[in-house]
Design a protein that fits this description.
Blueprint: E1 2-5, H1 20-28, E2 32-36, H2 47-51, E3 56-58, H3 61-67, E4 70-72, H4 79-82, E5 90-93, H5 101-110, E6 113-116, H6 131-148, E7 170-174, H7 178-189, E8 193-198, H8 201-211, E9 216-219, H9 222-231, E10 234-237, H10 252-255, E11 263-266, E12 287-290, E13 293-296, H11 306-335, H12 337-340, E14 343-346, E15 349-350, H13 353-359
Parallel strand pairs: 1-2, 1-4, 2-3, 4-5, 5-6, 7-8, 7-10, 8-9, 10-11, 11-13
Antiparallel strand pairs: 6-14, 12-13, 14-15
Helix pairs in contact: 1-11, 6-7
């Protein structure tokens, strides 16, 4: 099979869908690998590193899309990339279709088979291709939140760790999954006073058992969330429903209860965000203010640490990529129900139930529907 990797073109996106390590594995199994020139430079991988393992470098993205049977990326295809997809081609990348009906429509029109990293599952009910980027985003969230809180950026001017005689900043993390756990660990490590809110009591027990007094936990009922955001200097939104739009857990009206200059980091912005006032931003212009509250809503946070992110993502996607290449997409999905859960678009129809429901579109009938 011919595997193609174009350079990412979303603003300030430096990750790459295929690392030289993954290219080596694919070439070693008899597959052809085509990489757009400079695709890996942002993550620290020169063209020579790909050529050294047997990949072929081409000058343009058009050549990649025109020749590849399987296109591997990081971010959802941008409008110009969607026009390059064709019937019979397989796209393997993050899609986040629930809040993006235009992308969904154009992918359906392309006729391509689109498999989304974020809905591939594992035997434990986890999301193995989302997890490494969730870990990165979770660890980044307190870091960028602390920056947003600086007075020069419009924030309260609060140091999360405090100093002797001055109390530390308060951080509320809404969601106790991978993102929330990593965010809480880092914020607590910075010396902040941290509380994690989640609706799952078993998850809260797990966090309490593993982390003890490192941070506090609370059930994420409406009252507890309202209290936590009113007291917090920094609120981190870390809620995910696989394939679906993120629930709006904080309304605009509630911003008036927050401290002036408090900061919000919405890690769920890829799925539409979990704050009513959230809209996607970029690394070039990451923050904005609504009713005196500073919002950080960068839609590709892990792109800021592109090398770590590309290596982590590459480690996770490699077994699935090789399965798709070795067996073809139909054989790979038939052999692995967890990979099959990644199927979002096929033959002009939505093939994932949660995505179809979020978009208000019919679900493809038959054995391919996930």
């Amino acid at each position: 099979m011919r595997i193609g990797c174009p350079k990412e073109i979303k603003p300030q996106e430096f990750r790459v869908g295929l690392t030289p390590h993954a290219a080596r594995e694919a070439v070693g199994r008899g597959h052809e690998v085509v990489v757009e020139r400079d695709a890996g430079v942002g993550a620290g991988f020169a063209d020579d590193a790909y050529q050294a393992v047997g990949a072929r470098i081409v000058d343009t993205a058009e050549e990649v899309f025109a020749t590849a049977d399987l296109v591997i990326k990081v971010k959802e295809p941008q409008a110009v990339e969607r026009k390059r997809l064709r019937e019979g081609q397989v796209l393997f990348t993050y899609l986040h279709l629930a809040p993006d009906p235009e992308q969904a429509r154009e992918l359906m029109e392309s006729g391509a088979t689109c498999i989304a990293y974020e809905t591939v599952t594992d035997q434990n009910g986890g999301l193995p291709l989302l997890a490494p980027m969730s870990e990165v985003a979770g660890k980044l969230a307190p870091q960028v939140g602390a920056w947003t809180l600086q007075k020069a950026n419009g924030g309260r001017g609060v140091l999360l760790g405090g100093i002797p005689g001055v109390a530390p900043g308060k951080v509320a993390v809404i969601g106790g999954g991978v993102v929330g756990t990593q965010a809480a660990r880092v914020a607590a490590g910075m010396g902040a006073d941290v509380i994690v809110l989640d609706r799952s009591l078993p998850r809260l027990r797990y966090l309490d058992d593993v982390f003890g007094r490192e941070f506090k936990t609370a059930h994420a009922n409406a009252g507890a969330v309202a209290e936590a955001i009113a007291e917090a200097d920094l609120v981190i939104g870390a809620v995910l429903i696989p394939g679906a739009a993120a629930p709006k857990l904080v309304t605009r009206a509630q911003l008036s209860t927050m401290k002036p200059g408090a900061a919000i980091v919405d890690v769920a912005i890829d799925q539409g965000g979990c704050f009513e006032t959230s809209h996607a931003t970029t690394h070039a212009d990451p923050i904005y203010e609504v009713d005196g509250i500073m919002h950080y809503c960068v839609a590709n946070m892990p792109g800021a640490v592109a090398r770590t992110s590309a290596l982590g993502l590459g480690n996770a996607t490699l077994p699935f990529l090789l399965a798709l290449a070795d067996k073809g997409w139909q054989g790979a999905l038939a052999a692995d129900p967890h990979l099959k859960n990644g199927l979002n678009v096929h033959a002009g129809r939505i093939a994932h139930a949660a995505v179809a429901e979020a978009l208000g579109l019919p679900l493809a009938e038959g054995s391919l529907a996930a």
